[in-house]
Amino acid sequence: MDDVLRIDPDAQDDRFARFRLIGWWDQQRIAEAKVLVIGAGALGNEIVKNLALLGFGRVVVCDLDRIEHSNLSRSVLYRPADIGRSKAQVAAERACEIYEGMRCRSLDVNIVYDLGLGLYRWADVILGGLDNREARVAINSAAAKTGKAWIDGAIERLDGVARVFEPATGPCYECTMSDVDWRMLEARQSCALLSRDEMEQGKVPTTPTTASIIAGIQVQEALKRLHDVASLSGQGYCFEGAHHQSYLVEYRRMADCPTHEAYEPIETLNWSVHQTTARDLLGHAQLDLGSQAVVESNHDLLRELVCGACGDTEQRLGSLGRTTASDARCPRCGEPRRPEIFHTIDIDHDFIDTPLGELGVPPWDIVTVRSGGEQRHYEFAGDRHEVLGPLNEAPQ
After folding, report:
1. What does the CA dihedral 62, 65, 70, 76 come to, rounded to 10 degrees?
2. Which of 19, 59, 204, 311 gets the highest tally of CB atoms within 10 A of its CB?
3. Cα 99 to Cα 267: distance, rounded to the nearest angstrom
4. Residue 314's beta-bridge partner residues?
């Protein structure tokens, strides 16, 4: 790392003048960086605030939740008048008030099911500020498939950890999970309805002070990676707040971990999941893979809801992430119904002529077509503008 300070007595005192005193600092690189922030709670607020102060130019903020009264004590970007509003939207608005040069896009999405891989592939930096395992597993899987690193943060009470994972080349989040972690995750996934109702059960006690520390480390790691400065890749910074002790841990890549395979090569199609059917995609892919090819989704696709008590069955195509536990209550007897899901579509499938978006494939996703041991990956770039909005017009 170049520690030489740049001292220019004739330099103008512009907004970022103090940053430029750091020898290796490149403010233009920061302005051009594309950042994906997942989670807009206590950690997410501090991450977004820091990105704005540092002059990041293009940021997408994702969160499913609405602002509650308890968020006001831990989230610097929220005000009492914001209660009930989208966390992601308000965080994006306030970030642009801090730095008018920032272009910030907000997405109200279920991270597990409704965030396409194209957005991960677009991002130079991926920052996670979450409080549940299933969302972290989803981010980790998406980062691996798109060959990206991501910077995770976690806080509880006075303690916290910031970690840098490069799933395609080094240890990943799943490599750090214990048998207990997996059992807890499987228990929460047992109903397969990871909706907002279930996500809220993962809330943990946090403080704004610890959030500031961990988010600060996360954004600092993002800066270092953008400047090709050695970072915490494959490591975690652990902060113990009761006695203000901190230390580094090194993670080990697990040989039997399945989440290390990147999608490559990826063919970019100027198609949209809203207009493209599985038949269309198979027709394109079969030229290379033959007539036995099948479409494979990255997400659980909902086919129908079945009541085990009275036998009532309702066809309900779409994203599993947008189906709540209350939606799944049987209208006939009131008992919970189980979701019937699917992941693959072949040429004889019932929904071969249904647009992929109606089946639950998120916009700007990367969809795989497989035949035996061969596979092709297709990015639905026709959805870029829907996802990025004004950021799609920025220079790439």
Report:
1. 20
2. 59
3. 36
4. 305
Between 353 and 394, whose confidence is greater?
Answer: 353
Q: Assign 39 to helix, strand or coil.
A: coil
Taking the C-alpha atoms of residue 57 and residue 32, their distance in angstroms, rounded to an integer, is 6
Q: Please name the helix (run of DSSP H) or strand (run of DSSP E) that holds residue 248, with its range, or none.
A: strand 245-250
Beta strands at 58-62 and 103-107: parallel, antiparallel or unpaired? parallel
Are 173 and 152 in contact by the 8 Å Cβ rule? The answer is yes
How far apart CA 386 and CA 396 sit, in angstroms, is 16
Tokens found for residue 135: 């969302």
Q: Which of 231, 211, 199 is nearest to 44 (CA)?
A: 211
Which residue type sits at 8? Answer: D
Q: Are 130 and 65 in contact (CB under 8 A)?
A: no
Q: Look at the block and give the residue holding tokens 């980062």.
A: 143
What's the helix, strand, coil split of the chain in %, to 5? Answer: 35, 25, 40
Q: Report DSSP letters for 126-179, one per residue.
A: EEEE-S-HHHHHHHHHHHHHTT--EEEEEEEBTEEEEEEE-TTTS--GGGG--H
Residue 72 burial (CB count, 10 A): 14
The residue type at 5: L
pLDDT attached to residue 165: 96
SS3 for 72? helix
Q: Give the rounded distance of the alpha carbon of 144 from its chain centre.
A: 12
Q: What is the model's pTM? A: 0.91
Structure-token pair, residue 265: 């090569």
Scanning the structure block, which residue is given the tokens 């901190």?
246
Q: With 0-12 CB in 10 A as exposed, 13-18 as middle and 19+ as buried, what is 70?
A: exposed
Measure CA 317 to chain center.
23
| Residue 315 β-bridge partners | 304
The percentage of residues in the chain with a pLDDT greater than 90, rounded to a whole number, is 78
Provide the token pair at 158.
């006075």
Span 273-288, mean pLDDT? Answer: 95
Give residue 265's pLDDT band: very low, low, confident or very high (50, 70, 90). very high
